[in-house]
Design a protein that fits this description.
- The structure holds 2 protein chains of 2 kinds.
- Chain A is mainly α.
- Chain A has a single domain, classed as 3 helical TM bundles of succinate and fumarate reductases (Up-down Bundle).
- Chain A is 88% helix and 0% strand.
- Chain B is an alpha+beta fold.
- Chain B folds into 2 domains: 2-97, Beta-grasp domain (Ubiquitin-like (UB roll), Roll), CATH 3.10.20.30; 100-231, Fumarate Reductase Iron-sulfur Protein, Chain B, domain 2, CATH 1.10.1060.10.
- Chain B contains 10 helices and 7 strands.
- In chain B, helix 4 (131-139) packs antiparallel against helix 7.
- Chain B is elongated, with a radius of gyration of 20 Å.
- Classes of the chains: A mainly alpha, B alpha+beta.
- Chains A and B meet through helix 1 and helix 3 of A and helix 10 of B.
Chain lengths: 109, 234
């Protein structure tokens, strides 16, 4: 049951990430065309709730997706299975979430 | 031609033989020649010689194959060929593997049919054109030769993995409209040892001598288990 749920979660977050990565890259390419400075970019993102929502979704999806993908890598390459692996991956998810949200809030607030 | 043949058990080494070439010679003919004319102690397994029984599967130049259906012409490189037992299975001796774990995994994947009718009942009708029957048809011709299991990189990395053949069998039962045990079966094939361990490398589909697609069967099981999980049935 838990592994089926993890599989489903990874598929769903993969679909979300496909859209997020596309929007993210397209925005970067578009934004640098006119030679925007960091200050000008921050001027557009600060206080913008739409960008806050978009990048929050991006970070949450990445924090769910990456540890699930890392799980079989640890199992198959390092023979690391059992509760210690799940704990480490949970911790990894928290780190991704914390670092990601810190960056999102930094360009918003 | 020069033939290198694996001798020993899991630990062992290759032994070189010189074998004459014949027209339409198969790799099984080569192994049989060695056993009958050069070294009677060579252990190998075969039965039908015509691609029906699946017992002569071995690793030929690193690739799992039915030796009876592999012409020497196709695999000879610089007049040499290397023959070893199937991978991912314990070696008993020389070219003979212990297939217990392979078949035990079919049982673990709930590979036994369980219907609701008895011999007193009439036959159950299964429409040949129905999508369910077609899905069963796509996978039912497996003869259990273990070529897919030997080719699978996930089995090599995760010894608990049920493997392509057992999961293919489970899928043909999941799509069998007469089957009564599917909730338990889906539970048995979900998870780290089951369909979710598959990385979709398609080694099994690439190597299957019957041209079946265990990869498609495993993808079907992923969908079926996901649906069951969402309904709370898993």
């Amino acid at each position: 049951m838990i592994q089926t749920t993890l599989w489903l979660a990874q598929r769903v977050t993969a679909a979300v990430l496909a859209v997020c990565v596309f929007v993210h890259l397209a925005t970067i390419i578009y934004a640098v065309q006119g030679g925007l400075t960091a200050a000008e970019i921050l001027g557009r993102t600060r206080g913008n709730a739409a960008w806050l929502a978009f990048y929050s979704v991006f970070v949450v999806a990445a924090a769910i997706h990456a540890p699930i993908g890392l799980r079989p890598v640890l199992g198959e390459w390092l023979r690391w299975r059992g509760p210690s692996r799940e704990l480490a991956l949970g911790l990894f998810a928290m780190i991704l979430l914390f670092l990601g949200m810190r960056a999102v809030l930094a360009v918003f607030a | 031609m020069r033939v290198k043949v694996w001798r020993g058990g899991t630990q062992g080494e290759f032994q070189a033989f010189e074998v004459p070439r014949y027209p339409s010679q198969t790799v099984l003919d080569v192994v049989t020649h060695i056993q009958r004319k050069l070294d009677p102690t060579l252990a190998y397994r075969y039965a039908c010689r015509v691609g029906m029984c699946g017992s002569c599967a071995m690793t030929v130049n690193g690739v799992p194959r039915w030796t009876c259906r592999t012409h020497v012409d196709k695999v000879l490189r610089d007049d040499a060929v290397e023959i070893s037992p199937l991978k991912n299975l314990p070696v008993i001796r020389d070219l003979v593997t212990d297939m217990r774990e392979f078949f035990d995994k079919w049982a673990r994947a709930q590979g036994q049919f369980k219907g609701a009718r008895t011999k007193a009942d009439d036959f159950e009708r299964v429409v040949p054109e129905s999508p369910e029957r077609k899905a069963v048809d796509a996978g039912i011709e497996c003869i259990g030769c273990a070529v897919c299991y030997s080719a699978c990189h996930v089995v090599a990395a995760n010894p608990a993995y049920l493997g392509p053949a057992a999961l293919n069998r489970a899928w043909t039962l999941v799509k069998d409209t007469r089957e009564t045990k599917n909730p338990e079966r889906l539970r048995a094939v979900a998870g780290d040892a089951g369909c979710h361990a598959c990385h979709t490398h398609m080694d099994c589909t690439e190597r299957c001598p019957k041209r079946l697609s265990p990869t498609a069967a495993i993808a079907g099981l992923k969908r079926a288990t996901a649906r069951a999980a969402l309904k709370g049935d898993l």
